[in-house]
């Protein structure tokens, strides 16, 4: 109780301080980051070929990686509106190869001043309202931060005029783009639920007779082109003026109207801090800061695994067992401790302290699963555990320009099509459902990630940049996929650094997610029970773990859930010793990696 009171009063203190002081958590344990000679050419990897192409055009016109990122984001919001866009938020990790600095930009959405800790609970039952009620509510939408975050980075690293970076997507929106299989599939999947409730979304994603627009359909979006033109003139055009008024009006609509106001939008500022970096076997690993939990959680998995010889264990049941056990521990800590560090003291340094992680690793046995997994006690203070899941609807992209400036960006409207409300050609986010629906856990302890006015919800997004032992840039990685993002991303780092795999092979390793007791993994040759078809998303390739390895994990005591639907969307750019770049794109989605 004493701890709860202390937390409450420190929260009040921070809430009163307002939103100005950026979190500044400096690098942990002195990882080495040096300058890097320029690569032989630039590269873009993104979740849709049209978005990759938009980024490449900007690189070819002399734009920087940040200019290209702006172009990629603009294109993704048009061609992949189910995942990210103007109405969403993002985290970007940026490596400046001349200054040998790594920055974490935070464009996470922010709750309105009127948000309350219990706003997602049903008043009568006191339980969280159902998924679509929370997702499709006006209450779920936070002030969108992706575009102003990119603008902040553009002030630091832009080479082209800010507005120029929208040109190719303005044309694409006016001429029309071809609807991809994945977009068509998701419209069809969401059609029975609430996507048709919003008149703008209904008119845009469905034909006049109410059928979902099909794959191959030529979809234009004049409103989107107009929004980009407005943004080109005013980088804050989504947060002030007519577009902001329309966003606020849509949020105020039934059901469950939100309180997001023009004042909330005007108060929104992106944040910038030093990236969160730790050392893994001599490699600096740099990620985003809280409220992203991906930086600390991926690095906690790695820091725990550092106590084992992962390269000797290899891509075997033993290797995956260690990976799973380290993941269980890291997720438990993340669920308990990570939230917006402007509101809650997140013990990042303590969670990643090598001596602490040694004590966590000591809980792992090589020949049996841990009997119980609890969050550790990196510092002595009580926190309630947040059990809120987050849902697929996100995109990861990465750019390296010819100077070597590097960005790793994960961007999202949260669920598929966000809140499923459409304004001015783009979707509004439902990011505030990433807060815990409850403010206290079952023991009555306050949850770090509870809703509060002007607070940012915890994210699983895990954009990372990895460095070679000499401190030079080695590769970028990151993925969409709800809270599985952490496992997907950590897998690629183990795959490349410990198992010596190429970026593409690391991406194609089976996805293995160990959280809350069960071990979910992609199993080989799993077929849909009804259609008997292999169901592997757009890639339609088999990524599953061999059955013998799965059985060996079961024999170690793991509660294995064979999964068919681990649709990660990993994108990697890797720098080889000779300065050439190679890319990796996840065949589970529609992405491409292309050199300039
Ligand atoms: N909203 C989630 C987050 O920020 C991401 C959802 C997803 O990747 O699908 O962590």
CATH class of the largest domain: Mainly Alpha
Count, helices = 19
Structural class: alpha+beta
Mean pLDDT: 91
Quote the CATH topology of the largest domain: Serum Albumin, Chain A, Domain 1
Gyration radius over CA: 22 Å
**Biggest sheet statistics:** 7 strands, antiparallel
Distance between the termini: 58 Å
Helix content: 25-40%
Shape: globular
Molecular structure report:
The protein is built from 19 helices and 20 strands. The protein is α+β, with helices and mostly antiparallel strands and 596 residues long. It has two domains: 5-37 and 272-390 and 437-511 and 567-595, Serum Albumin, Chain A, Domain 1; 44-91 and 102-268 and 405-434, no CATH class. The strands form five sheets. It has a seven-stranded antiparallel β-sheet with strand order 6-3-2-10-9-1-20, covered by helices on one side. The protein has a six-stranded antiparallel β-sheet with strand order 7-8-13-14-18-19. A hairpin with a 5-residue loop joins strand 13 and strand 14. Helix 12 crosses helix 16 (354-361). The model is unreliable at 1-29 and 536-540 (pLDDT under 50).
């Amino acid at each position: 109780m004493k701890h709860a009171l202390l937390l409450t009063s420190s929260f009040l203190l921070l809430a009163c301080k307002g939103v100005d002081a950026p979190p500044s958590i400096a690098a942990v344990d002195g990882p080495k980051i040096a300058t890097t000679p320029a690569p032989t050419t630039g590269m873009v990897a993104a979740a849709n070929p049209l978005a990759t192409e938009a980024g490449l055009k900007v690189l070819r016109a002399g734009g920087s990686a940040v200019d290209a990122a702006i172009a990629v984001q603009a294109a993704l919001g048009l061609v992949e509106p189910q995942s990210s866009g103007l109405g969403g938020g993002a985290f970007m990790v940026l490596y400046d190869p001349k200054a040998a600095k790594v920055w974490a930009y935070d464009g996470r959405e922010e709750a309105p001043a009127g948000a309350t800790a219990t706003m997602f609970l049903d008043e009568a039952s006191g339980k969280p309202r159902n998924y679509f009620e929370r997702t499709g509510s006006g209450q779920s939408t936070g002030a969108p931060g992706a575009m102003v975050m990119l603008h902040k980075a553009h002030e630091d690293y832009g080479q082209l005029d800010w507005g120029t970076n929208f040109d190719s997507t303005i044309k694409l929106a006016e001429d029309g783009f071809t609807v991809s299989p994945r977009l068509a599939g998701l419209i069809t999947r969401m059609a029975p639920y609430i996507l048709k409730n919003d008149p703008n979304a209904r008119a845009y994603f469905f034909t006049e007779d109410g059928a979902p627009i099909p794959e191959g359909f030529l979809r234009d979006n004049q409103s989107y082109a107009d929004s980009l033109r407005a943004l080109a003139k005013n980088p804050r055009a989504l947060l002030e003026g007519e577009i902001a008024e329309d966003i606020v009006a849509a949020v105020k609509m039934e059901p469950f109207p939100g309180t997001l106001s023009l004042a909330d939008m005007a108060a929104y500022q992106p944040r910038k801090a030093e990236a969160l970096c730790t050392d893994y076997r001599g490699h600096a690993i740099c990620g985003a800061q809280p409220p992203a939990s991906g930086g600390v959680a991926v690095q906690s998995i790695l820091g725990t695994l550092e106590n084992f010889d992962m390269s000797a264990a290899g891509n075997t049941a033993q290797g995956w067992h260690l990976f799973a056990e380290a993941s269980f521990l890291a997720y438990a800590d993340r669920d308990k401790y990570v939230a917006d560090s402007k509101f809650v003291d997140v013990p990042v340094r303590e969670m990643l302290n090598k001596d602490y992680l040694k004590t966590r690793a000591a809980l792992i046995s090589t020949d049996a699963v841990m009997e119980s997994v609890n969050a550790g006690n990196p510092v002595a203070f009580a926190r309630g555990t947040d059990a809120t899941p987050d849902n697929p609807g996100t995109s990861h992209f990465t750019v390296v320009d010819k100077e070597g400036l590097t960005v790793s960006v994960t961007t999202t409207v949260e669920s598929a099509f966000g809140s499923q409300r459409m304004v001015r050609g783009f979707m509004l986010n439902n990011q505030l459902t990433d807060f815990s629906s409850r403010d206290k856990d079952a023991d009555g302890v306050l949850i770090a990630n509870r809703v509060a006015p002007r607070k940012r919800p915890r994210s699983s997004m895990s954009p990372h940049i990895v460095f070679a032992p000499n401190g030079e840039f080695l590769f970028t990685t990151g993925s969409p996929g709800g809270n599985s993002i952490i496992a997907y991303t950590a897998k690629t780092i183990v795959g490349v650094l410990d198992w010596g795999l190429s970026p593409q092979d690391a991406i194609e390793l089976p996805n293995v997610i160990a959280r809350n007791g069960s071990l979910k993994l992609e199993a080989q040759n799993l077929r849909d029970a009804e259609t008997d078809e292999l169901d592997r998303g757009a890639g339609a390739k088999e990524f599953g773990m061999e059955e013998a390895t799965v059985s060996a994990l079961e024999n170690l005591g793991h509660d294995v859930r064979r999964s068919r639907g681990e649709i990660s969307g990993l994108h990697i750019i890797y720098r080889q010793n000779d300065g050439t770049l190679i890319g990796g794109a996840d065949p589970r989605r529609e992405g491409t990696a292309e050199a300039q």
